[in-house]
Every structure is written in C-alpha cells, then in structure tokens.
Amino acid sequence: MTWTNVRLIWFREIRDQLRDRRTVFMIAVLPVLLYPLLGMLFLQITQFMQQQPTRIWVAGSADLSTEPALFDGPHFAKAFCPEDESRLLQLTFREAFPSDSSGRPLYDLARREIHRDGYDAIVVFPADFSSRLAAVSAAAGSVAKRGPTLNTDLPEMPPPEILFNQANDASRIAADRVERILTRWREALVRHALESRGVSPAVAKPFVPLRTDVSEEIRRRAAVWSRILPFVVVIWALTGAFYPAIDLCAGEKERGTLETLLCSPATRGEIVGGKLLTVICFSIATAYLNLLSLGATGVLVIRQIGASLESGLALDFGPPPALAIVWLLVATVPIAALFSALSLAVAAFAHSAKEGQYYLMPLLLISFPLMTLPMLPTARLDLGTSIIPITGMVLWLRQLIEGQYSDVLRYAAPVLTVTAGCCWLAIRWAVRQFQTEAVLFRQGERIGLRLWVRHIIRDRGATPSVAEALLCGLVILLMTFFVSLRAVPPRVWADFAQAVAATQLGLVAAPALIMTLVLARRPRQTLLLNLPRLWTLPAAMLLAVALHPLVVLLAQGIDATYPMSEDTLRALESLSSVVQGTPLWQILLVVALLPAICEELAFRGFILSGLHHVGSSWAIAISSVLFGLTHGLLQQSLAAVAVGFVLGYLAVQTRSLLPCAIFHFTHNSLAVVVGRELPGRLEQASWLDWLAHPTGSQVVPFAYHAPVIVAAATASLAIVLLFQRAGSQHGTAPTDRSNSTDSSRST
Length: 747
Hints:
This protein has helices spanning 3-18, 21-50, 83-86, 107-116, 129-146, 169-196, 217-226, 229-255, 258-262, 268-307, 322-349, 353-358, 360-372, 383-386, 391-402, 405-410, 412-435, 437-440, 449-458, 466-485, 493-519, 523-526, 536-561, 566-579, 584-611, 616-629, 634-654, 658-684, 706-730; strands at residues 54-59, 71-72, 75-76, 89-94, 121-124, 161-164, 692-694, 702-704. The strands form 3 sheets. A 4-stranded mixed beta sheet has the order 4-1-5-6, sandwiched between helices. A two-stranded antiparallel sheet has the order 2-3. Strands 7-8 form a two-stranded antiparallel sheet. It is mainly alpha-helical.
C-alpha cells in the first residue's frame, strides 16, 4: 500500500465532504445547536409542569376533630404542607365517598369521577375515622399499662385511602404529594399521643441513620459525567461515521464517480484506506463537537433543572474534570475507527444513498444494547465485561474518568485487544467489500412478493445464498427463543425428553430441511450428505476425545469469567434430579444423538453451505456464532461457539456431514458420561488421581491435570493437521463453483 495514494484520496474525499451542506450540518451545526435547544426546552417544560396545580377530592373529612388538625380551612395545615406545596394542591371537600357492602370505595365510580371531573386524586377517610382513631389511642394506653401480651386487644383501624390513576402522570404525582402529607400527619399524631401520656416522642424514633458523603467534589462530578460522556462519544461516533460513509460509497455510485476512482492507479486497499481516514475524521469531529456542546449545556442548564426538582434535590453538576476530557479525546480515536470501518463496509453494499440509510437501523440495533449495558447500576468492569466489544471500552472509559486507575491498568490489555481486533476485522470486511465486484456494482432490486417468490423458484442455485442461510439461522434463533420463554421446567424424564425432541426436530431440523427443498436445487450437496473417507470417522471421534480436557478447561474459564446466578444453578440442579435414575442409553439418545443429527443438518449443512459464498473462514465463524446462540445460557453459548468452530472446520475439510455428526455425538456423550461418573470415581479410586481432581464447583465438578491437558492439546493438533492435509488435497469448498454467482443474491 502506497501512502501517497492513500493521502491523495484522503484529501480529495475531505474536500468533497466539506462541500456537502448536509454533511457540514450533521457534523458541525447540529451538535452545536442540539444540546442548548434541548436544555432550553427542558427548562420551559419543567417550569410549565411546576405551575400546574393538582385537584384533590377530599371525602369523609367533616368529622376530623383529632389533634393536631390536618386541615386549615380549604388547605392542608402548614405544619404538614409547606406553602410552596400548598399552592399546587386544590382541595375540594365533599361528603363521604360511596362504598360497597364491605366498606371499600367504589373503584369504578372513582375512575369515572377522576376522568370526567378532572380530579387527579380522591382521598377517602373511612366513616367515624376520628372516633376510631381516638379509640385506638385510648386502647393503646391501657394496653401499655397491662403489658405487651394484650396487644391484640387494639380495635381495628381502617386507614384513609388514596384513589388515583397510575396510568396518568399528574394523578400519580398528586397521590405522591398527598401520601407525603398524610405520613407527616401520622407522625404528628404519634408524637401528640406520646406527649399526652408523658412519654418522650424519641421512643417512637430512637435514632435516624446519618448519611455522610465522604467523597471529594471532583469525584462526585466525575461519577456523574462518567455515565454521560462515554455514551455520547460512542453514539455520535457512530452517527458521524455513517452519513459520510454513505456519501463516499453509495453517493458515488449514484453520481457515477466511483468507476473513475476505481480506474485510477490506486489499489482497492488504498482506496479503502483513504475513504476510511476521511470517515474517521468526520466521526471524531462529530464526537468532539457533541462533547463540547454537551459540556457547556450541562454546566449552564442542567444545574438549574436539578435545583428546581420537586424533591428539592440539587445536583452538584459542575464541569467535568479536565483529565476526563483528555481520556475521552484519546479513546474517541479507536471507537471512531471501529464504527468508520463498519459504516464503510455497510455503505459499500448499498446501491443508493436512500438504501444506505436503511442499513443504519440494523447497525444501531446491534450497537445500542452494547452502548446502554454500561449505564446499568450493576454494570462494572471485570474480565467478563472487558472482552465485550464497545461495552468494555465504555466501562473502561468510566473507570478512567472516575480515576479508578488500578482497574484501568488491570483490564487495559483485554479492552484494547478486543477493540483493536474488532477494528481489524471491520477494516478487512470493508476491503473485501471493495474487492467484490458483485457487491460494489450491484443494481437496485425491485421488491415485491410475486417477484420474490418467482425469483426463489426460478433462480435458485445449487446451494442456498448467504441471505437464505442467515434467514434460516435467524428463524431457528427466534423460534427457539420464543419457545424457551413459554417453556415449563420438566418434572419427569419423559417431559424433558419430549421437550428436547420437539425442539430439535421441529425448531432446528425442520426449518433447515424445508428451506433446503424450497431454496436449493441440490439438497444432497447443500446438506453435505457425501460419503467421506473411511479414516475420517474414527479420526473425528478421537478428536472429540482429545479435545475433551480442553473443553473442560474452557468451561472452567467461562465459569470464572461469567459465573452463573443462584437461580440458574438451582434450575440446573432440578434438571439433574429429573435426569437422575434414567438409563444411560436414553440420556445419550436424547442429549447426544438427536442434537448431533438435527443441529448438524441445520448449522453445518444448510447454513454453512450458504455462508460458504463469503469464504470458508467467515462461514465457519458466522455459523458457529449462530450455533452458540441457540443454546440459551451465556456460558453454554460461549462453549458451543468454540465447539462450532471445530465442527465447521471438519465440515469444510471433509466436505461431509458424517464426521461432524460423529464428533458432535462423541463430544456430547463424553460430557454426559464423564460428568456423571468421574466425580464419584475420583473420590473412591485413588489411582485416578493422575487424571483429574475434584474442584467442588457445581458447574465444573472436576478439572484435568496439566500433563493431561498438554497431551490432549498435542493429540488434537496432530489430528487437526491430518484433516488439514486431507482437505488441501481435495479442496475445501463444500459447494461447486457453478454456484459462486449466487453470492450476488445474498441481498
């Protein structure tokens, strides 16, 4: 790659983008104006909401003669309702509210009155409330003299009831205000009763917890800003990258200037490099301007909003620490590089700028949960979250802003490695998009149900397309997800076996088989129903045996990184009790053989064959991720993704599904048999001490010794190299070359 060509393309694209008024508005004008306008709007709304009084219907208060008095004329007494609150409450006193035979208010009538007459809440005092309250007070005094054993002699005291509409914000606020006032009045009644009997009111409340904030002011400000600024950086880095990327790719397709650029002496990699640097520049500029505008607005406007809250909680909202701004400016670069490469690859696939804008939504749907996860109160930076793309970087930024440098140094390596790896993969994807003529110069498509069905039947290839393979995977994921939500925990083995069989046959194998018959001209080739070399069958079985210690080691690492919750452990324990006592052959039939057939037909058959049009490596990776996601639990999904890579590798090298099914069956059988027998044998037979040792964990009850793991890794590598040599002799494509043009149908 020649830097001169990259620099020329970079400067050319920068000049073109600066001439585009839409880009300049999105990058410079919108961030500067957005936050001040939002701050002014919130101030106006806050003032408007504070000036709106709430109407309260008070029923049954005519005979309230207790001391201290709750009402002072048409208002609540100032002792319980300060003047600033009293102005927001308009009281209407009426007779007792109608009630049913049990004495409860008629809720249907209250609902109509609140909706029709515009009341926000209705306060209903029971009949003879004052006399009953006096009786309770007198009975309490006599009980206190006779001893604590007669406390049950206190008469029944029905409380006042607040009727409101939870679906209406104004009604909910009115109910909260009235409840606070009644709580203050109740406490005053208790104090009055105690004082009248010569008892100190401190008996009812001997102490009040004292909360003392020992944090420094700069730490408090850093804690507030650490939840806002990283999210702003990430979301605007994505937004600032996507629109320039659309114009640089799909926009040039519409203007007809992309062909001229491709005919230049610059290589495709140099073109991608120049465009990528341009998109990164605009992404960084967008994030920086948003940070500047948000910081100014937060200091000048948000403090006023916090100070005017009804609860009286004033936010200590000063400017962010200077060091936090430095860290944000530095961390914006890798974040912008990641989103720029992703946006460039997605935009290169679009035929027009309008079509490219549609692709922003899927990218946001994937990225947004990763952005919002660090904002949860329970989210913290650990090894598990540090290796999650985007989430780890945002949490790492939070620790940097808050000054938690010990955690920052501890998790710097995984966070930066994952971010750099994602950037590299995204850039590789973007370069691949520009090197694929079918993607770069594809034509716009007419969308219609009749045309789509006709296209599927008439133009179907020997194997499915990429889009059809992804559709199959998504259908399986959605079906298994929604069925799992309605699943009932099995109580006996028959229920468990029936549920597994229905899931494997109806939700995994059936979609793949149906789509194979409809979408592929060669079902046998699509499902890899070929006879492999005879030696690959025992080799696949030996590979599963050799990898078992490594799989157990991986399960230990996953359990240490993402420990299971107590509820999950109880569910697994109940499932173990269901399986306990069942003959081993039945367990292997349901847990090992059935998934080995159904899941391999779907993921290493239909899905892998369709994804192979984008390359063997990508096909193995994507099918493995889809395979892992169907396993529900996060810990199981991560282990299944790793096993899926091995299964995909076997499918590609042998061009047959049979070795994959044998490996899958052996792997599941070992997990059942060894997990069921080995922990007990380790406690009884001392001669097995060389093999493994118990761990005491419920998830992974045993662990293999280091020599066993080393030997297993060596044997696994030798078997993998054997498959590699066999695959290189016969080619690794599970589909024929005649279907290579089907990749253009992947839209």
